[in-house]
């Protein structure tokens, strides 16, 4: 599997939320874990759903939470399921092909009671509430019905290679200075600033399409870089097919002093029982 650098793919691979606050539209949040709700869900009062007929893989994904609603553009239903349930692509089982092919534009508004409720919540509770609102929207407009299972699935463990890690802990941000962004892509280099190895495992999980478990025992926040671009390198999960291709296994071991080993682990999955294409409005 070749990994191609496209801004939206990096966002998805990193496991980042595609939703951001209207007051801080350039700050992305780490994906949160949203449990499958067992009781009544909060819901939007008004929703509009239409297909983005001009869907383009090169267009940026847009997801904006406002004080009284949400606006989504250029997103597949798979991406919305990931956001609603806090899972990655390989954890979604049984979805038809169009779920990851067709893109949608959605506008939704909460009623006054829900808007006031959101205003009283802390950030963690707001994110959970937003997940539940999205679950409700998908059930209503896409007739999405799912259930959760735990399955023993092939996985990879991320461990320290012989010779130890080849990176250092990040230096604290000096007082009065703005912290560096956690991940930066520039000139074919992906730079991690003050990033936990568990976060790297999450990135690898998405791009490799299976669970990657952090077994390094490294608990700090670190600085390191890896090549990640289409024009200069082709990072692959298997053997390189040409001189410009580099195996991701090679990158990890030679540049970071880490390696991936096969394993089987219990993996939580979301099974799609039913889904329908929405009627536009």
Write the layout of secondary structure elements.
Blueprint: E1 2-3, H1 7-13, E2 20-21, E3 46-51, E4 62-66, E5 69-76, H2 77-85, E6 92-93, E7 103-109, H3 112-119, H4 123-141, E8 145-160, E9 168-169, E10 183-186, E11 189-196, H5 197-208, E12 211-214, E13 221-227, E14 234-236, E15 245-247, H6 248-256, E16 258-274
Helix pairs in contact: 2-4
The share of residues in extended strands comes to: 25-35%
CA-based gyration radius: 20 Å
What composes the largest sheet? Answer: 5 strands, mixed
- State the separation between the terminal residues, measured CA to CA: 38 Å
User: Could you say which structural class the secondary elements and strand pairing correspond to?
Assistant: alpha/beta
By oligomeric state, this entry counts as: single chain
Number of strands: 16
Number of domain units: 2
Strand order of the largest sheet: 2-4-5-7-3
Global mean pLDDT: 81
Helix content: 10-25%
Report the principal-axis shape: globular
What is the H-and-E element order? Answer: EHEEEEHEEHHEEEEHEEEEHE
Q: Which regions have little confidence, pLDDT < 50, spanning 5+ residues? A: 1-32, 230-237, 239-245
Number of helices: 6
């Amino acid at each position: 599997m070749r990994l191609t650098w496209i801004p939206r793919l990096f966002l998805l691979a990193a496991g980042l939320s595609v939703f951001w606050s209207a007051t801080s539209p350039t700050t992305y949040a780490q994906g949160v874990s949203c449990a499958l709700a067992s009781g009544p869900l909060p819901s939007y009062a008004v929703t509009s759903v239409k297909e983005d007929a001009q869907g383009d893989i090169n267009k940026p994904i847009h997801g904006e939470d406002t004080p009284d609603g949400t606006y989504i553009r250029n997103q597949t239903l798979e991406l919305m399921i990931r956001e609603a349930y806090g899972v990655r692509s390989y954890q979604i089982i049984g979805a038809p092909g169009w779920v990851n092919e067709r893109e949608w534009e959605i506008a939704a508004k909460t009623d006054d009671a829900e808007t006031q409720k959101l205003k009283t919540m802390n950030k963690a509770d707001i994110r959970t509430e937003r997940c539940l609102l999205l679950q409700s929207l998908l059930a209503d407009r896409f007739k999405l019905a799912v259930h959760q299972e735990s399955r023993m699935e092939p996985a990879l463990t991320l461990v320290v290679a012989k010779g130890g890690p080849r990176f250092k802990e990040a230096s604290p941000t000096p007082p009065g200075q703005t912290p560096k962004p956690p991940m930066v892509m520039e000139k074919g280099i992906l730079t991690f600033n003050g990033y936990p190895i568990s976060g790297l495992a999450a990135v690898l999980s998405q791009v490799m399409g299976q669970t990657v478990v952090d077994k390094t025992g490294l608990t700090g926040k670190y600085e390191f870089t890896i090549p990640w671009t289409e024009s200069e390198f082709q990072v692959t999960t298997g053997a390189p097919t040409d001189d410009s291709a580099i195996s991701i296994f090679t990158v990890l071991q030679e540049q970071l002093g880490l390696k991936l080993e096969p394993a089987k682990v219990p993996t939580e999955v979301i099974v799609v029982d039913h889904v329908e294409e929405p009627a536009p409005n």
